[in-house]
Amino acid sequence: MSDSPVNVTVTGAAGQIGYALLFRIASGQLLGANTPVKLRLLEIPQAVRAAEGTALELEDGAFPLLAGVDVFDDPKAAFSGTNVALLVGARPRTKGMERGDLLEANGGIFKPQGEAINAGAADDIKVLVVGNPANTNALIAQRHAPDVPADRFTAMTRLDHNRALSQLSRKLSVPVSQIRKLTIWGNHSATQYPDLFHAEVGGRNAAEAVNDEQWLADEFIPRVAKRGAEIIEVRGASSAASAASAAIDHVYDWVNGTAEGDWTSAAIVSDGSYGVPAGLISSFPVTSSGGSWQIVQGLDINEFSRARIDASVAELEEERQAVERLGLI
Ligand SMILES: NC(=O)c1ccc[n+]([C@@H]2O[C@H](COP(=O)([O-])OP(=O)(O)OC[C@H]3O[C@@H](n4cnc5c(N)ncnc54)[C@H](O)[C@@H]3O)[C@@H](O)[C@H]2O)c1
Ligand SMILES: O=C(O)C[C@H](O)C(=O)O
């Protein structure tokens, strides 16, 4: 076991995802079974008491790897010295709210959080944004942290990736462990593009194994892209434990590396690869090694995929322009 604990800040700690996430972090699933963690929970003042209640429960878990829990309502204090930041707390869309209103409300959250990360986080800070609209919230935070390398800011499309794995596994009646090289491109929204064309199932091309373009276009892609809405409809609340699980997967792979011969999906700052404008935080096929993500290069993008990637990237561009107009970046 390494000696010094890793500081992990979780925002929105009293929310649904926070509750599903914190106990898994405390048990060692975020960073590995040999890494002690110190949790730093950030909430708005009205929810601090509930976060303190969760902190009591974390204490009651007697987790051997948990070196302490602190609760904050001030971002500067919560991010001071932090190594891993999970930005989960966000303003949900409520009735009558337009997309612009949502972006503006979230700007009020992610701008000060980016500034606080810039001011006081540890040099090796890694940031995962979960709160929606995740890609653009990550962009806002990143732009307000000019002293932090841009590649430390990421947004979560791992839940979409996991959803796509499960849907394909059901269709082909194979375990998810046999599926490799699946990709989510673009935005964590209904425009995202889950791409099977480079995926492999038991060593065989997945699109060929499926051999059903209608299923691909009319069932698989919309099912994955609209799964968040389906969960809300059926469960009566947005996904929480599956989102927490995907956040664990994302950070675990970022820190510990992806498996040889496979890749995963994460929204990271574009370097212009695959025609995605540089600077946008967009989902790509990625591998991780040495604590950093690399975009998988050299994939052939067919016409079917190109149109769908472009549509999702266009939406990200619109969101970027909207937050620029609002003066948020
Ligand atoms: N990227 C993804 O795949 C994905 C998946 C599921 C949900 N989400 C998003 O994750 C977010 C959280 O979901 P949830 O179900 O936990 O919501 P929730 O409403 O249960 O919890 C959100 C928590 O954030 C807190 N919060 C609000 N503003 C804050 C701030 N400025 N600082 C710290 N905390 C703050 C709230 O007090 C609340 O406790 C939502 O935006 C949701 O849409 C993303
Ligand atoms: O909260 C939502 O709007 C849905 C969420 O992003 C999800 O993908 O489950």
TrEMBL record:
Enzyme Commission code(s) on record: 1.1.1.37
Signal peptide: none
Limits of the Lactate/malate dehydrogenase C-terminal domain: 157-322
Amino-acid positions noted as binding NAD(+) in the UniProt annotation, renumbered to this chain: G12, A13, A14, G15, Q16, I17, G18, N106, Q113, V130, G131, N132
Record-listed substrate binding positions: R93, R99, N132, R163
First-level EC class: oxidoreductase
Highest rank taxon of the organism: Bacteria
Catalytically driven reaction(s): (S)-malate + NAD(+) = oxaloacetate + NADH + H(+)
Keyword Oxidoreductase: yes
Biological processes, Gene Ontology terms: malate metabolic process; tricarboxylic acid cycle
Active-site residues, Swiss-Prot/TrEMBL: H188 (proton acceptor)
GO molecular function: L-malate dehydrogenase (NAD+) activity
PANTHER family the UniProt entry points to: MALATE DEHYDROGENASE
Family note: Belongs to the LDH/MDH superfamily. MDH type 2 family.
Protein name: Malate dehydrogenase
